Structure formats: structure tokens, C-alpha cells
Amino acid sequence: MQIGENFQPHDRLSAAELRLMAMRQQQQIDTQQQMLAAKEQRLRFLKTQESRATVTLAETERLHRLRERVEAQESKLRRLRALRGQVDLQKTYNVTLGNDLDSIRALFSEKEKELTLAVAKVEALTRQLEDLRRNRRGGIGSHGFIAQNTSNGVISPAAKELEKLRLELQYRNQLSLQQNARLNMQREVLQQRQMELNSVDKRIVELQSRIHKKRNLNVQNYKVQASKDDPSEQQNNNPSAAASNVTLHMRSASTNSISPSVRSLSRGNIVAVEPFSHVPTKSLLGGPSFAPSQAAMPVPNDKLFQNSMTQTVFDKPDPIKHQNQPVQHLRHPQQKLQQQQHKYQSQQQLQQPVQQQS
């Protein structure tokens, strides 16, 4: 019993130590679990940041590509406007050349009439000269005196006038030849300029068709990319994105509805912000006209027309402006349809004064 009593305190101490060790190990396990949870939370945070960084990088790259496309289209439009200005200057120059040719034709016809009169006068004088020569050969008395005067070097006034008319006839012939050569050169230059104008018109039509196709393709791509966005993020964003979506849709609809009327305009007209006065082409040299087959429609000097045309022809949705506003669909389709009808009616009201003026 004494021995058991001696070992009893030692056993109690060992059990207390074991309890302390168990408590310490439990605390270490709890701290390690807390550290593990903190590390897992940090890892999730880093993963979300990495995904956001990749998304923002893709968005910036896409916006950079869209900016490059917009700049390329703007440079093409500037070149197209410059070509249109050159074509209009060339047309005015051709009109002035045609007027000069008409005046030269009138002068040439007058000179031809004067030349025919001079030729008739020369023929009459030659007949008179032949009569005088016959009279001089077969004449006696006074006719012998006339022959003696001519043999002495005295020239009759009829011979002087005949020589003068002959020289004038030679001068008129040379002048008519020079004028004919000048007219032929001007005709060749005019034909060459008209061929250049036709080639420039074809190039302008080709560039217009390319720009229209690229604009439609960009609008379609923008709509597809906007439709692929997350609807949950769309509901949390600014509600003004719905209005921007409706305006974008109506702009594309108005562009598609007005583009045939714009294409029906003559290639000589400029559909731009500034007013333009078109000079109608006319057939030069009496031949067929080289004007385009479409009817030329002058552009009126109207601010409303300019604003509507610039909004429909050259206006397109700006992806940079709406980069922070994702597309958000309306909850009620009927309300969306009513807003679209209202926008379309306003566009039609803007187009009515243009059609009345044309």
C-alpha cells in the first residue's frame, strides 16, 4: 500500500502532463487550421484578381482593335471626301473647257463664212483679170498703152487687190489649220479627263460599298458581343444602358433604312456636314454625255437635312463610349417595342422634310 501510495502522485502528474500536451496540440491544430483557411482565402482572392486582370486585358485589346478600325474608316472617309472634291473640280474644269470649245467653234464658223466670201471675191477678181488679159492681148490703142505701162513696171490696182486677197487667203488657211489642230488637242485632252473621271467615279462607288459593308459588319459584331455578356452583371449595372441599347438599335435600323436613298444620290453630290452646290454635267463636243446613269439630286442647304444625314450615313455606335455600359435588355418586351416605334417615328419625321425638298 505504501508502494502504491508512492507511485500515485507520479501517475497523477503524468496524466496532467498528458492533458496539457493534448490541449497544446489541439491549440496548434486550431491555429494551423486558421492559417490554412486564411491561405485558402488569399488564394481565392489572388485567383479572382488574376481572372479580372485577364478579362480587363482582353477588353482593352478588343477596344484597341475597335479604335484602330474606327481610325482606318475615318481615314478612308477623308480620302473619299478628298477624291470627291477633286472630281468636282475636274467637272467644273471640263465645263469651262466645253464653253471654250463652243466659243472656238462659233469663231471658227464665222471665219469659215468670211473665208468663203473671200474665195468668191478672189474668183470674181480672177475672172476680171482674165478678161483684162484677153483685152490686152487682142486690144489696140489704149490697150497697147496699158500693156506698155505694165511692161514698164506699173501694176494695176486690180492686180494689187488680187495679190492682197491671195495673201489673206493663205493667212486664213494657215489660221484655220492651227485652230483645227488646237481643237483636236483639246478634244483629246477632254476625252482623257473624262476617262479619268469615270475611273474615279468607279473607285468612289467601290469604296462606298466597302465602307458600308464594313460598317454593317462592325454593328453586327458589336451586337453579338453585347448579347454574350452575363445577364446577372447586366442587371447590377447602370439602368441607363437599356436606353443606350435602344438608341444603338434604332441608329442601326435608321442606317439600314436610309442607305438605299443615299446610294440613289448622284456620285457628283457630297453627303457631308457642309452644303454642296452641284454643277450638272453636259455633253461636250456634241457627243453623248459621260455623266453617271443615276439622276443627279442636289443637296439642299438645310441644317436639319445635314444633321439627319450625318447621323444616318456617317454616325455609327461608338464602342469606346459604351465600354463601361454593358447592354441591358428591357424586362418588358412590349415597353421595348413601344420605345423602338417612338424612335422610328421620330426618324421618319426627320426624313419627311428632306423628301419634300427633293
From TrEMBL:
- Low complexity: which segments have biased composition? 335-358
Which terms in the GO cellular component ontology are assigned? Answer: nucleus
- Just give the chief location class: nucleus
Q: Where located? A: Nucleus
What does the UniProt keyword field contain? ANK repeat, Coiled coil, Nucleus, Repeat
Where is the region Disordered?
220-241, 314-358
One GO BP annotation is: regulation of apoptotic process
Which GO MF term does the entry hold, naming one? p53 binding
Positions the record marks as coiled coil are 22-83
**Designated name of the protein:** Putative apoptosis-stimulating of p53 protein 1
- The organism is Anopheles braziliensis
Its taxonomic placement starts with: Eukaryota, Metazoa, Ecdysozoa, Arthropoda, Hexapoda
